Automatic annotation (TrEMBL):
It catalyses: Endohydrolysis of (1->4)-beta-D-xylosidic linkages in xylans. Pathway: Glycan degradation; xylan degradation. Pfam families: CBM_1, Glyco_hydro_10. GO terms for biological process: xylan catabolic process. Residues 1-18 form the signal peptide. This is Beta-xylanase. Transmembrane segments: none annotated. It is an enzyme of class 3 (hydrolase). The lineage of its organism: Eukaryota, Fungi, Dikarya, Basidiomycota, Agaricomycotina.
């Protein structure tokens, strides 16, 4: 486990007489630490409760002076009545040893997180998400899906997706586009339109063209098709499969390539982490698509896993995928548990996160890891799996769980 100096400085401000390091707190009601940021950084006020030293280039001009509410008094007044929405700053925000910095040093292209519009109103959350030493890549959880981008036939709205694309650009983070052709989160007009083959093909290619074209040049990789397989390895019956047939997959990829020749084009699915019928089917499908000259660049492995039940065959399975000559990426990683979270479960979870990171590092074609948001506060798990949660490395109050140091340790930090 690495000692992260800026964390110590942030945690023990009354012991040091130094200027505040980058990404540490520098003000806010009841803040008793220093209010002066090191050279090149500026104390940026997010709200009455929290100010942080940000690179001067990205600190908001409206609040580029030290927060005046941060009158340093005595150590005794450090107890905080801050509302839950502005919990203490997450503690792995060190510029020297964030997830992404460590992942790059270990040979990956990125370590990233999902996010979306709703949680960005939480300033502490947004500041940590925006720290490109921690997250070098972001994925919009929902705002680029069909129901967001084309809720009415032919009427495209990119407002919410643009928020995420603009954030990635402002932060210097890679963007993964998610997702154009999926059986779920489809508007009724698509699922219930009773379109014939030619009409639905036109609707699908128009959607792929418009959405991927809109973000052309801004996206590192697109999940072009999502969850096309059943668990037994057969092709899922969706409106696209039922109407167009298997060729909808190839058509979607070819359309995507034309819309953004530079984006990596991925096929993304769940329950393909370890070996098994579904993984074999994925390998056979991608192999067949490549044989037909279909432009598939990568396999996205979602990795919504369960504490204590991580498959033991990750590395061999991912190697078999990479051996096809495509990239692989861990696209939606979280590792849930049955609540309440106990010390034993959190320890097992840390081990499980390490198993995933180690497997990615061991497979040359594995380019990156994306966690499906970074804090339990905004995890999809509790609302989807009754009685389960605590799936992410940070808890709902942004405190680091054992998984944080475990991931950093696997990444060599
Ligand atoms: C925080 O500071 C405010 C004044 O800014 C004070 O009224 C309040 O009692 C303090 N809260 C705590 C928990 O110390
Ligand atoms: C739909 O049309 C395409 C292109 O003509 C064709 O290849 C495919 O077989 C058709 N699908 C079905 C289910 O008829």
């Amino acid at each position: 486990m690495a000692i992260r100096l800026p964390l110590l400085l942030a945690a023990l401000p009354f012991l040091v007489n130094a200027q505040n390091a980058i990404y540490t707190q520098c003000g806010g009601n009841n803040w008793t630490g220093g209010t002066t940021c090191v050279a090149g950084t500026t104390c940026n006020k997010f709200n009455d409760w929290y100010s942080q030293c940000l690179p001067s280039a990205i600190a908001s001009p409206a609040s580029s002076k030290p927060a005046t509410t941060a009158a340093a008094t005595t150590k005794a007044s450090t107890s905080s009545s801050a509302p839950a929405s502005s919990a203490a700053a997450p503690s792995a925000s060190s510029g020297a040893s964030g997830f992404h910095t460590a992942a790059k040093a270990a040979g990956l292209t990125y370590f990233g997180s999902a996010t979306d519009n709703g949680e960005l109103t939480d300033a502490t959350y947004k500041a940590f998400l925006s720290d490109s030493s921690v997250f070098g890549q972001i994925t919009p959880g929902n705002s680029m899906k069909w129901d967001s981008t084309e809720p009415t036939q032919g009427q495209f709205t990119f407002t919410k997706g643009d928020v995420i694309a603009d954030l990635a650009a402002a932060n210097g983070q890679l963007l993964r586009g998610h997702t154009t052709v999926w059986h779920s989160q489809l508007p009724n007009w698509v699922t219930s339109g009773n379109f014939d083959n030619a009409t639905l093909t036109g609707i699908m290619t128009n959607h792929v063209s418009k959405v991927i074209g809109h973000y052309a040049g801004e996206v590192y990789a697109w999940d072009v098709v999502n969850e096309v397989l059943n668990d037994d390895g057969t092709l899922r019956e969706s409106v696209f499969f039922n109407t167009i047939g298997e060729s909808y997959i190839a058509t979607a990829f070819k359309t995507a390539r034309a819309a953004d020749p530079n984006a990596k084009l991925y096929i993304n699915d769940f329950s393909i982490e370890g070996t098994g019928a579904k993984s074999t089917a994925m390998i056979n499908l991608v192999s067949s698509l490549l044989d037909q000259g279909v432009p598939v660049d990568g396999i996205g492995i979602q990795a919504h896993l369960i504490v204590g039940s991580v498959p033991t065959t990750l590395q061999e399975n991912w190697q078999a995928m990479a051996d096809l000559g495509v990239e692989i990426a861990i696209t939606e990683l979280d590792i849930r548990m049955t609540l309440p979270a106990t010390d034993a479960l959190l320890k097992q979870q840390a081990t499980d996160y390490q198993t995933v990171v180690n497997a990615c590092l061991a497979v040359k074609g594995c380019v990156g890891i994306t966690i499906w948001d970074w804090t339990d506060k905004f995890s999809w798990v509790p609302s989807t799996f009754s009685g389960q949660g605590a799936a992410l490395p940070y808890d709902e109050k942004f405190a680091a769980k054992p998984a944080v140091d475990a991931i950093l340790s696997s990444l060599g930090a």
